[in-house]
Amino acid sequence: MRGATRRLAALGVLLAAAGITFSIESLVPPLLSFAPYVKIGLANCFVLFVIVCFGARDAFFFVLAKNLLTALFAGFFALPFNLAGSLCAYLAMAGLYNAFFPRISLISVSIAGAIVCNIARTGVAAAVMEAPSLFVQLPAVCAVSVAAGIIIGVLTTFSIKHLPERLTKFE
């Protein structure tokens, strides 16, 4: 039971950190003025970390909890954007990680997650605003996504490599 309690406590701390990171990032002006829903998504560092250290099952529940928690900060109007992006990023990252890691790097996994996340968010924006013309933004959105994915992948790789093993091994 001690292991399960330690695991749950660690996930709780990571969830709190993801919520704080999301809150701080929401104070930063949009990266693209024509697509204000596009962000770096630094809280996804925690999602990728949970996929690697805890597994896809725990990461799925982590993503759901993260979105409900951050909806309290950002307002529930942002939930469809955030949930669509997070779930799509989770599916891409967990799938690629489980199928191809270590043949592909965490940076590649993160880039794929970031691209899929922002495509999903663009899709939600197009649906909510009834403006399919928003898909014209996808090349710029994907370029920002690649940069964001690199940042998130590097941060996550650095965290996993340099944190003490007792903080990264929860099996």
Automatic annotation (TrEMBL):
Family matches, as Pfam families: Hpre_diP_synt_I
Keyword Transmembrane: yes
Transmembrane segments: 33-56, 68-92, 104-128, 140-160
Annotated keywords: Membrane, Transmembrane, Transmembrane helix
Gene3D superfamilies the UniProt entry points to: 1.10.1760.20
Name of this protein: Gx transporter family protein
Organism, scientific name: Candidatus Borkfalkia faecavium
